[in-house]
Amino acid sequence: MTSATEQTVWLSGVITTFMSKVVMPTLWLGALIGVPIWVYATMGRISIRSDFQFIVWFVLIATVLLAWLTVHLQLVGYRGRELVVANYWREARVPFEHVAAVEPVWWYKGRMVRIRFNRRTPFGSVVYYMPKWGAFRALYSAPEEHLRSVVFTSSDRPKDLPA
């Protein structure tokens, strides 16, 4: 168990998470809804030329993928032997034993980390987080290594046993 005086060590960048989870999706959805409304208001109808249908389909498919990622993007930290996962409405503590893997995201290496759980948590079986200063240190750091070392090295292990 953790003591009441232990502080949470946050690994997520608060500003980057807020921008990626709240601001950018709001702007994206505003444009996605606002552009057709503006076109309809000015032209009286909405029609898409066949040359541009690919772009419309691309935007719609990207919206689904971005929505999925936004739902799974959380604030992540640790306190004692528990992983703290939070968003703006709730917080959950997940024991390190329930963490199956901490891995980099191949398409956003250094700027995003994926945590997979071996049990269902209040935030699902997978969570993503954006590390502090990830945008600036992405080329020369591996933020997943820090969390991996915290989660998978046990402080409860007796000193005479090998790691």
Written account of the structure:
The chain folds into 2 domains: 57 residues, no CATH class; 80 residues, Roll (PH-domain like), CATH 2.30.29. 39% of the residues lie in helices and 23% in strands. It contains 4 helices and 7 strands; from the N terminus they run E-H-H-E-E-E-E-E-E-H-H. Helix 1 packs antiparallel against helix 2. The longest helix has 30 residues. The radius of gyration is 20 Å and the shape is elongated.
Low-confidence stretches: 156-163
- Evaluate the radius of gyration: 20 Å
What's the total helix number?
4
> Main β-sheet, in a few words?
4 strands, antiparallel
* Mean of pLDDT: 85
Run of helices and strands? EHHEEEEEEHH
Structural class category: alpha+beta
Key phrases:
163 residues; alpha+beta; four-stranded antiparallel β-sheet; three-stranded antiparallel β-sheet; 7 strands; elongated; disordered C terminus
Q: Can you summarize this structure?
A:
By secondary structure, the protein is of the alpha+beta class. It has helices spanning 14-43, 53-72, 134-137, 143-152; strands at 9-10, 75-79, 82-86, 91-95, 99-104, 113-121, 124-129.
How is this fold's topology laid out?
Elements: E1 9-10, H1 14-43, H2 53-72, E2 75-79, E3 82-86, E4 91-95, E5 99-104, E6 113-121, E7 124-129, H3 134-137, H4 143-152
